[in-house]
Specification:
The chain has about 210 residues and is mainly α. It is about 70% helix and about 0% strand. The longest helix has about 35 residues. A hairpin with a 6-residue loop joins strand 1 and strand 2. It is flat, with a radius of gyration of 27 Å. The termini are far apart. Helix 7 runs antiparallel to helix 8. Strands 1-2 form a two-stranded antiparallel sheet. The protein folds into three domains: about 60 residues, Multidrug-efflux Transporter Regulator, Chain: A, Domain 2 (Orthogonal Bundle); about 50 residues, no CATH class; about 80 residues.
Length: about 210
């Protein structure tokens, strides 16, 4: 069975099917003649189960435990119910705090943000979770360097491809010159990757969290 047939049967995209394969949640056989994936009805049943639990917002790790028989469906869903109940309680707290701010009839100039932040800190000590601003900021901060590095690497790869193509079209170009150019471009790619890794480490290391000191 081809992937597009599975897509129609299960009702999830090929991209999602590939993702579940990458996660090891579904493992179709390979056609011995061409090496292509050869899905069967067992794979369809497996994907339907994954689809069901994902629609219930069960984490992938829990689904993996179900497949490994390291946890029962009852235990898995009971854990999930507890997580949902906790999240619901937190949403109720957020909703109540929003109502308090509305009822205070304050505007952005006069509102006492410190008071509400103190209330949040007290609630956090009691186990309530609010949005982790630092984590969100770190994620956003990483996006720029990643995009910049990707664009630069693509440009360098295109340059390497152009050099190789040009050298094939023009046999008079010295091979040593070509090797030097390609080496420089490849070294640039390595340098960009090293710089990116270093930059991400700096961000993870708390560069954006320096405000904690003040």
């Amino acid at each position: 069975m081809k992937i597009y047939q599975v897509e129609e049967l299960v009702g999830i995209t090929k991209k999602n099917i590939r993702f579940y394969e990458d996660q090891g949640l579904v493992c179709p056989n390979r056609n011995s003649d061409n090496g292509y994936r050869d899905y069967n009805m067992e794979d369809v049943k497996c994907l339907n189960k994954i689809k069901l639990f994902r629609k219930l917002e069960v984490p992938l790790e829990e689904i993996r435990k179900l497949q490994d028989n390291s946890i029962s469906i009852t235990a898995c869903l009971n854990n999930h119910i507890e997580a949902i109940s906790k999240k619901k309680a937190e949403m109720d707290v957020l909703s109540q705090m929003c109502k308090e701010i509305i009822e205070s009839n304050e505007d952005i100039e006069t509102m006492d943000a410190e008071k509400y932040l103190e209330d949040m800190e007290r609630l956090e000590k009691g186990g309530v979770s609010f949005m982790d601003i630092k984590r969100v900021d770190v994620k956003r901060a990483k996006r720029g360097p990643k995009i910049a590095a990707l664009v630069w690497i693509i440009l360098m790869l295109l340059s390497i491809g152009t050099v190789i193509y040009t050298s094939r079209m023009d046999d008079s170009t010295p091979i040593g010159y070509i090797i030097i150019i390609i080496t420089i471009l490849a070294a640039t790619i390595v340098g960009v990757c090293v710089s990116l890794v270093q930059r991400l480490k700096e961000i993870d290391g708390g560069e954006l969290n320096e405000a904690d000191k003040y």
